[in-house]
Structure formats: structure tokens, C-alpha cells
Amino acid sequence: MTEIPRRTPFTGKRLLVVDDQIIIRQIVSAIGERLGFATVDTAQDGDEALLMMRKRPYDVVISDWNMQPVTDFELLRIVRADKDLASTKFLIMTARMDKDAVLAAKSAGADGYMLKPFTPQALRDKILATVA
Length: 132
Prior knowledge:
Elements: E1 14-18, H1 22-35, E2 39-43, H2 46-55, E3 60-64, H3 72-81, E4 89-94, H4 99-108, E5 112-115, H5 120-131
Parallel strand pairs: 1-2, 1-3, 3-4, 4-5
Helix pairs in contact: 2-3
């Protein structure tokens, strides 16, 4: 008997994980795969992410706040200013818990904000809220 594939809200969607720490990229990628994203790609910085986003569209980008040479904040501004990328859902991950950081992310156009560390369930809920 053939098993019927389980559909999720992420089935058929493309995820890009951007973080300068490989362990975070691996963890978030594994969670994305378990959630049912059709494609999960990773980038180690904003420059690489931007190149990837311009080659093919992503439904969701999950990006770390503090990266070099292009910070998440700068990446988000570039994405929002580019008519071909502007509709991409963008979730920021950070350990910063101050209100100013959240307000800056929202004013730059972030669709969501996720505090590190997080559980797989918390990340799933945040992605669902971002994609919805």
C-alpha cells in the first residue's frame, strides 16, 4: 500500500535560512524539513542570501539579526526595496530582547521576530504566523 504524503501549510514552499553560525543553519533547516517545506536552502551571510534570492524565489526567509558584512537589517531593507523580492515573508531571529530591536525590525518590514533560543514548536508557530 502506498503511503499518502502528509500535507502541511508549508508543502510546496521554499525556505531560505540565513545565519553566520552553521549550527543554527543546521537546526533551523532540519526543523524546516520536518515541517514539510519543499526546499530548504541556507546562506551564511546577507550577500550570499541576496544572490540566492535573485536566482530563485523563496516563500520565507529566516535570518539572523547580526551578520557581517551585510546585516539582517540591511538585507531586509534591500529585499523590501526590490520589487521582485518585496513580497517574500521575512522572519528575524535574534537573542536581542530589547523593545527597540523589535520596533526596528518591524519598521524595516519584518513579518516576524523570533527570540533565540527557541523550541521547534515555537519556531513552527512563528513560521505559521508569518506565512499566514
